[in-house]
Structures are given as structure tokens and as C-alpha cells.
Amino acid sequence: MGGGPNGLAAAVALAKAGVHVTVLESADQVGGGTRSGEAILPGLLHDHCSAFHPMAVGSAFFKGLGLQDYGLSWRWPEIDCAHPLDSGDAGVLWRSVEQTASGLGADEDRWRLLFGSPAADFDSLSEDIMGPMLRLPRHPLRLARFGAPTLLPGSVLARCFTTERARALFGGVAAHAFQPLHRPLSSAIGLGILTAGHRHGWPVAAGGSQSITTALAALLVDLGGKIETSAHIEDASQLPHADVTLFDLAPRAVADILGDRLPRRVSHAYQRFQHGPGAFKVDFAVQDGVPWLSPGARRAGTVHLGGSFTEIASTERDVYRGRMPERPFVLVGQQYLADPQRSVGTVHPLWTYAHVPNGYTGDATEPIIAQIERFAPGFRDRIVGKAVRTTTEMAAYNPNYVGGDIVTGAKNANQLILGPRPTLDPYSAGIPGVYICSAATPPGPGAHGMCGAHAARTALRYLDRYG
């Protein structure tokens, strides 16, 4: 139940094993956050949520599916990410560790030391970090080498760097966790994204992120699976009989549907599951692109706008506490630089969202524009259209995004390690044959499908034993 990338991945894994599978999706189109569309002008293509895919392009599960035969191909921008500063300087993230490090001045050796070995070993390392944390690692020494810095608060790890461009570059990626950067493990998601990016880059899916969904859905159908859209399930009595049921849903939604069928301890944990800050999204149609002052930003697929590390840490702390900052952290996507077919002539799609408090009811459009203007004077005059999606509209678009929480749950230490409840099997819902496979489970958010793949393997073990 739920046709996001994890639901589809779980369905494909089951179907490949010979199981008869039906996907039930409440929306009129599968994909969850991995959808795209023409929001402003005909032919101008915008990603609805997920946009760049450093974790998906190297996904161990996707690699064996042959999704290229179903139209999925990747496109890389010249520069993965830029983080401009008020001084006119900028941190610039390239796929190459060496090229990135060489642009960080006094922090060149520190960046190389932190990312060189883990990036080279990432394909082996991902076997451990892209799954449940509470298990025996396949590569314990490599995991220990990578894992030690992830335990640190982002604010502590940032002190390893002496230049503002390196601190800000790291902080902007660490902020993807939507967590205060003074908390333990607040380095983990940032280090994971950076390491994966140094191995595989930050590509986009040609033709929009919807291409990932389209490929998975087509493969599933070829394997004999079925997909039913507009399938609104509010109670377990509405579910068809099945040997196994997997939920690509936020934990509270699973608890609401299963009701008293859930063991009390599981229901209690799912109902108490914590959601993090929200995303306020604005898509722009921009004539001739954004006039960035930073040369690196003009060539970067992603641009992080938050100023110094100290400013980022302050705004993330405010947002987590429910206060809307005057200058929120803003992510900007220029996917068209890697995938020009998304543009219409000289009008280009610009993908942006700001970190805001969960359930924020205000309008963050002007703060987003102001942040872009801060580093690209004249941007406002180039806007020819925009489409806004508030935190409420984000939750309506995808019910897993409670209060605009697009990463499906606060990625604090407990939920990052344990998932939706304390157990050695984070995919089990405590009922034989019933599982949860959303981004609330390890390894967490992204269009990599690994949450669904792991849950499906757990379900297959159950079927082998009891089916």
C-alpha cells in the first residue's frame, strides 16, 4: 500500500521472487515525491519533490533491475553543488574529491582525508549504511572508519575546517537532515550524501524524476504486478486478502489503518513517531536563468543558500523550535543545466524550497526570493511565473509529508538508528506478514528504493517460512 519509490521497489522485489503483487496508491498517479509535471508553462518541466539523486544512482537494488531498458537514464551537471557566501566567495562541490579539495584552500587536506577513502570504498560501504543499523556489518573496518565522524554533531565536525567556504559547504549538505546541527549524529546524513556524491555524483533523471517512477512501474507490470490508483484505504477492512502486506506510509497512518490489530506497544510507538520541520516549495519560470554572482553557482545543479555555517545552524535551530527565520535555509535546483529538455527556449525551470517549521501557515515565497536576490541581484526581474506549494499542500500532495515533513520523520538519533520503533527489525509492524517500508525506516529518505527492498526481503523470509 503506497506507490512511492519504496512501495514500488518492494513490489518489484516481491514480483521478481515470483509473488503476485498489487500496489494500491491513493493518488491518481504513482510515484509519491518522485513525480514531475508542467507547473507553470507548457513544456517547462518541474520535479515535484525529489530532484537530485546521489543515493539512487548508486542504489544496490536499482543496479540489478535494468531500469535503463525502461527509459531511465541519468544526467550530471558540471558542478554538483555550490554554496555562495556574502563575501563573494563560495564553496564548490565537484564529483571529484580532489577537485573539491583543491578549491578549499587551507582545508584541502582535511576534505581529502575525510572523504577520499570512504568515497573510493562507497559501493562496499553502502552495503552497511544503506540498511538497518542494528546488525552485524559486512565491512566492519570500513564502517568504523566512515561511522566515527557521523556520530558527531555537525557543529563539532564543522570546526575541523578552518575556511568558511568548507564549513558552509559541509553545513549546507548537513542541513538536508532538517535537524539542529548541535545534536549528536547531525553529521550523518550530510556525510552520507557527500560521500555518495563523491562516488556517483548528484545526477538528475533525464525527463524528470518521474522517469524513476515510470521505469519501476513498467518493470513491475512486466513482472506480472498490478497497480491500482485512486485506491483510498482508511481501515484494514478495506484491504484485500493477502499473505503479506507492506505499507509505504508514515507510521501514524499505518497505526490509523490497522487500529487495534496492532500490538499496543507498536501502536504506541507509531502514534508517537516524531515529524520534523517542513518544506515550503516554490517553482519558478526564469528568463535566461539566475544571475548568480558566483561563477560556480551558474554551473551547479544544486545551490544552497544559507550564508555561513553559523547562520545555517541558527536558522535550523529556529525552524526546529517552531520559529520562522527571516532568512531561511533555501535549496535551489537548476536541473535544466544537466537536462536541457526541461526548459522552453530561454525560459528555465527553477526548483526551490525553504526549511520552515512543521505545519507553517505563513507564506515563505518572499523570503525565498530574497535569499536568491541576496546572491543573485536582479533575479526578481527575471521571474516570469511561479507555482507555490505550502506545507499544507505538501501534505495533501503526499500524506507521508505530515506538516510538510518531506523526509518522513525527524531524523534525530533515535529515529535515524532505530526507525519507527525500537526493534531489531524496523520493517516489522508486529503482526505476522505485515511490514512498513516508507522512508521512516532505514536507510531513510531518497529515491533509492532501499527501504522497500529491505522490507520486501523480510517479507520473503516470512513467506519462505510460513507461506
TrEMBL record:
UniProt signal peptide: none
A family per Pfam: NAD_binding_8
Domain of life the protein comes from: Bacteria
Record-given protein name: NAD(P)/FAD-dependent oxidoreductase
Taxonomic lineage of the native organism: Bacteria, Bacillati, Actinomycetota, Actinomycetes, Pseudonocardiales
